[in-house]
Amino acid sequence: MDLLTDPEEKIMCPYNPAHHIMRKRMNTHLSKCKRNYPESKLVECDFNVNHKVPEPELQYHHENCPDRRKIEHTVYHEEGVPINKFPVHNIEVQADESWDSYDVPSYDPVKYCETNVVIRRMDVASAAVRKNFRMEERHRLNELSINKPIPSSSIQPQQSNRNHPGARRNLPEIPRGTVAEDTPESVAEIMNRIVIGKDKAFIPKPRAGQ
């Protein structure tokens, strides 16, 4: 089937003009419909099995069959002539180095973990084996921490949180019994009337006539 044709397109059956079948199902339909017309003298095209024509018209159909071009292009194609109109040429790139020629030892993860500060654990073992493994790991990490101390450049000093929104601010303390200069008069009067007793501070009620 040609790629440019629509497989959903309905075409007429050569045995019965009343049958309109989709192009992609025509081959199955012809094999069944042919049994209902045994007296039909239609012959099959050499280029497409779905083409059924009367025998006297077969030669004319072969000369003008739309599928003849595809068959002839495949049969009479010259060797060495590329079919692709836009071929991709292979470009050989010469490289001086080869990554496979270097003698580099392979990476061993077990050896790396044993010689570096890596926390390991053992899950699938008995309780005694796991206990011995934990003791050996503590001893190994202690030796590595002594032999490989942490550089001072990696330790950052703890910064103050004064600029943090929730940090407590150091407000200036105002001595008891004094009033700031920019305090409103109504508040200043209340502050001057406060009487500090032994257990509590209170504002005395104004006397009658004051």
Automatic annotation (TrEMBL):
Keyword list, A-Z: Metal-binding, Zinc, Zinc-finger
Comp. bias intervals (Low complexity): 145-163
Keyword Zinc part of the UniProt annotation: yes
UniProt xrefs under InterPro entries: TRM13/UPF0224_CHHC_Znf_dom (IPR022776), UPF0224_FAM112_RNA_Proc (IPR051591), Znf_C2H2_sf (IPR036236)
Region feature Disordered, mapped onto this chain: 145-185
Pfam family, one: zf-U11-48K
Entry GO MF terms: zinc ion binding
Residue ranges constituting the CHHC U11-48K-type domain according to the UniProt record: 10-37, 42-69
TM region(s), chain numbering: none
This protein's name: Gametocyte-specific factor
Origin species: Anoplophora glabripennis (Asian longhorn beetle)
Gene, per the UniProt record: GTSF1
